[in-house]
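User: Hi! I'm working on a homework problem where we have to compare a predicted structure to a textbook description. Could you give me the structure for the chain below?
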Amino acid sequence: MNNKSKNIFGNGLGQLTIPIIAIAILVIFNLIRDPSFFSIELTHNNEGNSVLAGNLITIINGASELAILAMGMTLVTAACGGQDISVGAAAAIAGSAFVKILKSGDSISAGTVIIALLFACIVAMIFGAFNGTLVAVFKIQPMIATLILYTCGRSIAYWINGGATPTVTSPILDAIGKFIPGIPVPTPVIIVIIVGVIFKLVFRLTSLELFTQSVGINGNAARLNGINSTFVKLLSFIILGICVAIAGCIGVSRLGLINHETLLIDIEMDTILAVAIGGNNLGGGKFKVGGSIIGAYVIQMLTITLYAMKVSSTDVKAYKAVVIILLVVIGSPVVKEKFGKMMNKLRSRRAKVTVKGAERS
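Assistant: Happy to help. Predicted structure tokens:
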């Protein structure tokens, strides 16, 4: 494969080709099926505030928790060559810790919410460090290591609040999970943008992106070059823990209660698929956080499309699985390599035709 084809399928925009094509296909399909599918209108919510509404708003709003988790999962995947399947359970733990602090006082003030969020982040980081220690120190495969928390995490969330599902109501929580008065865009969408900007700044101002990719590509070589592979892997799980806490707190704020059994249920597989659809190698190495974010919106757009087509909730997962398998296969290294070879052949034929045309003239 020549340098040009490597540029197409290697990094940069090439890595984003599959998720962008997937988004484009879904957009075209929905525009043909229903030209008004992406229409946006300005309406009023129950509080009388002007807010944006429509399928497009539902998609970008509903994918917020998934997009945040996908950012953290991308780092873990790149550094460790495996995935954390406990993010949903860990989010339930963080959400329970969040509610525990909120219910500790007589009223929910801004200071209480900040303390609760910090506490939830610390709790999630501790559990992330636990998973990271099993992977980085004890060399356990990530999916097996995180299976422990996947199995018992929701039980831990159940114990934190004594088995209850307490409700938490506050204008501040409504602003976090729904809309800030005077701003028509859903707050979770704004939070996703903030988290994405923070990731971008961290990558720009530190060597985390380079170290993570180096460890994922070849941990031994990275170690010989002075990179602490154990620390990088552990740090990736801790950062994922912060993402888990933010997603869990958004979920609680949306509902106004904590239900350890249903909060972000089954989001683990969607998170992994978002990373895969985003063009990232699930075996570790080079990564694009932006691709994972787009992958999250691909999954959410597919879900909303199926619901709009009156597909029952029990059948949605089956349809999603078929489409996602196609996307993942199309984005696989084997298919990319074959497509690259085909493009090279077409270029060589065009070059020969051009040369022959020049000789005749």
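For your comparison, note the following. Residues 1-12 have pLDDT under 50 and may be disordered. The chain is about 70% helix and 0% strand. Good luck with the assignment!
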